[in-house]
Amino acid sequence: MEKLQFLYQLKLVPSLLDEASWTNKENSIVQHHFEVLQNLQQEGKLFLAGRTLNSDPMGIVILEVDTEEEAIELMNNDPAVKEGIMEAQLFPYRVALYKK
């Protein structure tokens, strides 16, 4: 069965747009978020993850999974989402072209 692809968009909650308001707690959550994404990559469920580098950053995570329910679960269990420092929105997605 062919895997389905989903993209979830991440946005920082407005109170964290100013880096001066970050504490060790937020830094720890983001580190855990990155580790979870690395584990998904090792499991073959993460196609791509990254972020914009502007003052109102947006992250994207592209998943390859069996079901939409699995994608929703992975998104909702992302530490940044679960801990409330980022808001996420899920979209059905299909990568059409990519650099090899």
UniProtKB/TrEMBL annotation:
Question: Which residue ranges does the record assign to the YCII-related domain?
Answer: 24-88
Q: Which family does it belong to?
A: Belongs to the YciI family.
User: What is the recorded name of this protein?
Assistant: YCII-related domain-containing protein
In its UniProt entry, the species of origin is given as Psychrobacillus vulpis
